[in-house]
Amino acid sequence: MSDVGGGLPAGGLGARKLRHIDACLHGAVEHGVLTTGFEHYRLPYNALTQTSLATIDLGARFMDHRLAAPVLIGAMTGGAELARTINRNLAAAAQKLGVGMMLGSQRVMLGDESAAVSFDVRDVAPDILLIGNIGLAQLPRTPVRQIADALARVGADALAVHTNPLQEAMQDGGDTDFTGTLAALSRLADDLGYPVMVKEVGHGIGVQAAAALRGIPIAAVDVAGAGGTSWARVEQVVRYGEVRYPAAADWGVPTAQALLEVRDALPGVSLMASGGIRSGMDAAKALAMGADAVAVARPLLAPALESAAAVIDVLGGLIEELRICLHGAGASDLARLRRIGVQPV
């Protein structure tokens, strides 16, 4: 998920976050025609596996942090009191499961220090990989020092820079000028002092965008492909109460395709697969296709409104299914899973 917003003051941004949450909970915001593409690949099944389910090793490293499983909680929200409840339940679940978490857009913090409280999670999650978040469109006019201060304020370990031109174009008052953003990204990656990941928000990073990132010292890319939540749909539901432009709303690079294209274009860069990861099998396929980790967002939103335990129940189930998938494929760990790979259907 994303919770980015255009040219509103902090109060307006906070109100927009609440409308985003409502749309994601109750609206028809999944991609329509487009799917993730994972259905076109099969994880090979091995009836003579020589593994023990109890000893399958899901341990992984991502952005220089050890994870108990190659999973992160994706970016959701921030800037409102309800967002604080969501973020703290998500973080507590991440701490319990030994996985990472990405915060929602911290842009709201840049104009309103009081908004920072909605991102305060370190007291409930002191050990997790915590990734901050800012929009690519904001980089040309935001000092690097201000972004670094926002990361330090919440105890983040790294920064995700989200690029979302389609979402912003659908948004009332969105940031629609992306000129100069690649140069600004390069300066940020050079000067920030934190590892930088570039991500989409659910419409995908494909080969053309990946090629533009060559030579920029980023640590990771989250392909954030199409097939899950469409933020172009979310913005239309929030703005109009309906989806007026369904063809554009269902535009993007499917997650499986994005993963393969970015892996080929940027072979030395760590990859995260997000966008429609809804099961342990989806995660297993993504990892077998070259992802270093996967991220899950919208399926955890309703549980996060309830409790950390509810988040653990959902995300822990996905991780357990991932473990079963490795066992059934004959893979004792993630390295072996990648050697097995997937088969086209």
Write the layout of secondary structure elements.
Layout: H1 10-26, E1 41-42, E2 60-62, E3 65-67, E4 71-73, H2 81-97, E5 100-102, H3 107-111, E6 130-135, H4 144-154, E7 158-162, H5 165-170, H6 181-191, E8 196-199, H7 207-212, E9 220-222, H8 231-240, H9 246-249, H10 255-265, E10 270-273, H11 280-288, E11 293-296, H12 301-306, H13 308-329, H14 334-340, E12 343-344
Parallel strand pairs: 4-5, 4-11, 5-6, 6-7, 7-8, 8-9, 9-10, 10-11
Antiparallel strand pairs: 1-12, 2-3
Q: Give the oligomer, counting copies of the same chain as homo and different chains as hetero.
A: single chain
Which blocks of ≥5 consecutive residues have pLDDT under 50? 2-11
Shape: globular
| Percent range of helical residues | 40-55%
* Percent of residues in β-strands: 5-15%
Strand line-up across the major sheet: 4-5-6-7-8-9-10-11
CATH class: Alpha Beta
The largest sheet is:
8 strands, parallel, barrel
What's the alpha carbon Rg, rounded to whole Å?
19 Å
**Total DSSP E strands:** 12
Mean pLDDT: 94
